[in-house]
Amino acid sequence: MKTFRLASFNIGASAKMYGRYDKTDLFAIADLIKRCGADVAALQEVDRGCARSGGVDMASVIARRAGYRFRHFITIRPFQGGKYGTAILSRFPITGRKTINYDVRIAKQGTSCGYVTLDTGDGEVTVFNTHLSCESEEANLETMRCLDGILSGYGGELLCCGDFNTLPDVVAGHMHGVRLANTSFCTYEDRGIDNILYTGGFEVTDVSTVDATSEKISDHNMLICTVTVK
Fold first, then answer.
1. What pLDDT digit, counting tens, does each position of 168-223 carry?
2. How far apart are CA 56 and CA 175, in angstroms?
3. For residue 13, which of 111, 118, 134, 221 sits 20 to 30 Å off, Cα-Cα?
4. 157 Cβ partners below 8 Å, 6+ apart?
5. 116 pLDDT higher than 80
6. Cβ neighbours of residue 171 closer than 8 Å, sequence gap 6 or more
7. Cα gap 43→131, rounded to integer Å
8. CB proximity list for 23: less than 8 A, separation 6 or greater
9. Element (H, E) at 128
10. Dihedral angle at the C-alpha atoms of 21, 24, 27, 31, nearest 10 degrees?
């Protein structure tokens, strides 16, 4: 069996420490990710080439500084001359990747999910990443139903990280065929809106959070766990 560490972390567009983008904030995010020891890190609220963050490719900078050789950026929407989205960083080679836009009508900002297939050296593993809508409860449920359809139709074992912008019991009530790693940990203020979903081919243990909010590295704490491939 292959075991690795998986993290899900909303980095707040690297703008929480000073109330605006600053490379010191971005380096602090990368250093925290490195210290947590995750083999795979799924990030949300990531800029690439946006004016507000000086055109920086956040995923690239974090990957280099934290020691990840492989990455995949997942576009949510165009933003300020660049793109806003999510990203997956990996110590394992990426053998496949895809970005999937949600077919939304209520969620005006749009959103997406994406996945990578990773060669762990002991078989392939698929990791999804997403950021569901925070515009309204109705928009959130619309994006969750989109994600449910995508994961249900994938046809294989998977892990899905993300900022779900709703509580675990709501996620559990609308997502099918997956289990939730986070049922009790607060990741944003007093709520557990960040989660890692997984199918029966995995065992998830040692679930915990890593503090990122005390020093305003982000407004979310990182969620991390150990994944065992059965």
1. 999 999 999 999 999 999 999 999 999 999 999 999 999 999 999 999 999 999 99
2. 35
3. 118
4. 125, 126, 199, 200, 201, 202
5. yes
6. 144, 164, 180, 195, 197
7. 9
8. 56, 61
9. strand 124-131
10. -130
Distance between CA atoms of residues 204 and 185, nearest Å = 15
Assess whether pLDDT exceeds 80 at residue 228: yes
Report the mean per-residue pLDDT for the chain: 97
Cross-strand pairs, 94: 118
* Inter-residue contact 154 to 184 (CB < 8 Å): no
Partnered with residue 5 across adjacent β-strands are 226
Q: Is the dihedral of CA 3, 182, 150, 135 positive or negative?
A: negative
Domains annotated for the chain, with CATH where assigned, are 2-219 (3.60.10.10)
Structure tokens at 109: 């900002």
Residue type, 168: P
DSSP state of 69: S
pLDDT digits (tens, 9 = 90+) for 118-174: 999 989 999 999 999 999 999 999 999 999 999 999 999 999 999 999 999 999 999
